[in-house]
Amino acid sequence: MLNRIKIIVALLLICRIADAQTVFRSVEDVWRYADEHNISIKTIKYELAKSGYATKQSYSALLPQVSATGSYTDNLALQTTLIPASLAGGPAGTYRTLQFGQQFVYAGGINAQMSVLNVARWDSVRIARLNEEMNRDSVANTRKQVYQQLATQYYAYLLMMEAERIATTTVGVADSVYQSAQNKFKEGTINEANADVAKLNLERALQSQISAHYQRLVARNNLKALLGLAVTDSVDIQSTLQQNLGVESNGTFAEDPSLRLALCKARISLAGYKASMASFAPTVNIVYNYGTTRSDKTFEPVDGATGVAGWFPSQYWSLQAAWPLFTSGSRWFQVKKNKISYDESMAQYENAKNQSALNDENMRLNYMKSSAMLKKAESVMNLAYDNYRHIANRYEAGIAPIDDRLSAFRDYLDYQNQYLNSLSDMLVQLYQIKIRQQAF
């Protein structure tokens, strides 16, 4: 019974670990996960949502502005005024006091205003819409940048896994060479210098193995950081380097989001230039106002007022126009500055467009070059290993000296490093092409 309980607990723990583990089988899986969890992408999406509300806010400024007012006044002490007594039948040359007004005054009203002609507000709407579009392009551009960072760490992990595999195999070979050299040294058939070279080759192979192992772990942690995962979260990359080498270098590239962003900035500069020109235009508003007041000597309804005092309404509408004719020339200079900003942004966009096309072409050329160089480096590495095996067999047969065997193995180690460097360069070009083929 106790054994069954242990088995059940173990199965539950295994299931829990499996549920908590994040599995990636390709770089595309990593990108999809990052779209929902990377902090940079999430932050720029928040900015896009805020710009959407800013656009709606600019549209709402075109609606009529309606306000309601109300007031209550308690005249604690009415102002006393001196008037000629003759006005009330009194003797001439004398005055009497009189207090005008009621103690309590009630007032209410409604004011409505609508802009009939205001070019600046429409320019604000246009700029808000362009800012929202720019934030949308910023999301795409941020995704592209994050994809590059993720691909760097993902392929670094696969590269180091390949380097560790090669290093592990090489360590086995180097160890056998070292053991053979030690035996020959003890027998006195080789000198100590040759034994030291064999030991040196083994140490170099062990260094490569250790370096690849820890660089692979660092790349995995960097991948976690970009994906918003904690150090305790488990990440399992169920893929090999060979499964991630396929890419169509002559495929169609999607539009570069950084290019769209540059164009949008130019359009915003144009909108700012037009908005500064609109400062010379007049504005026309329609205003309607309705108000009413009421005065009484008793406070309604607490003092038992009957409400016999009448309300005195008033209303009006007006057409208000304003045309700023001269403001010390500041508007004109602002127009000139905005025109220069627009010309500058357009020049930057045209340069970015030409540079983007050249970068795409260079990307294809660099990929073809790095692929060809990788094939040569792999062929040379394999030839170096075959040469080592051939010399090792000759050494075992007593035909070749130990120096030749050690030198051939040292060359094999050097060609391994050349192969890994070529592989690293090719992987960089490969994922750059993959990213350019993504539609952001």
What does this structure look like?
The chain is of the alpha+beta class and 440 residues long. The chain has two domains: 21-63 and 118-281 and 329-436, Outer membrane efflux proteins (OEP), CATH 1.20.1600.10; 65-117 and 283-322. 63% of the residues lie in helices and 15% in strands. The protein has eight helices and eight strands; from the N terminus they run αβααββββααβαββαα. It has helices at residues 2-20, 27-37, 39-60, 119-187, 192-226, 257-277, 330-396, 402-436, and strands at 22-24, 65-74, 80-84, 95-99, 104-117, 235-237, 283-296, 312-322. The strands form three sheets. Strands 2-5-7-8 form a four-stranded antiparallel beta sheet, with no helix packed on it. The protein has a two-stranded parallel sheet with strand order 1-6. Strands 3-4 form a two-stranded antiparallel ribbon. The longest helix has 69 residues, at 119-187. Mean pLDDT is 85; it is low at 11-19.
Question: In summary, what is this structure?
Answer:
This protein is 63% helix and 15% strand. With 440 residues, the chain is of the alpha+beta class.
Strand content: 5-15%
Average of the residue pLDDT scores = 85
As a percent range, the share of helical residues equals 55-70%
Run of helices and strands: HEHHEEEEHHEHEEHH
Question: What assembly state would you assign to the polypeptide chains in this entry?
Answer: single chain
Span of the ends, CA to CA: 57 Å
Count of all domains: 2
Q: What is the spatial order of strands in the main beta sheet?
A: 2-5-7-8
- Name of the top-level CATH class of the largest domain: Mainly Alpha
Provide the gyration radius in Å.
42 Å
- The CATH topology of the largest domain, please? Outer membrane efflux proteins (OEP)
Strand runs, count:
8
CATH architecture of the largest domain: Up-down Bundle
Largest sheet features? 4 strands, antiparallel
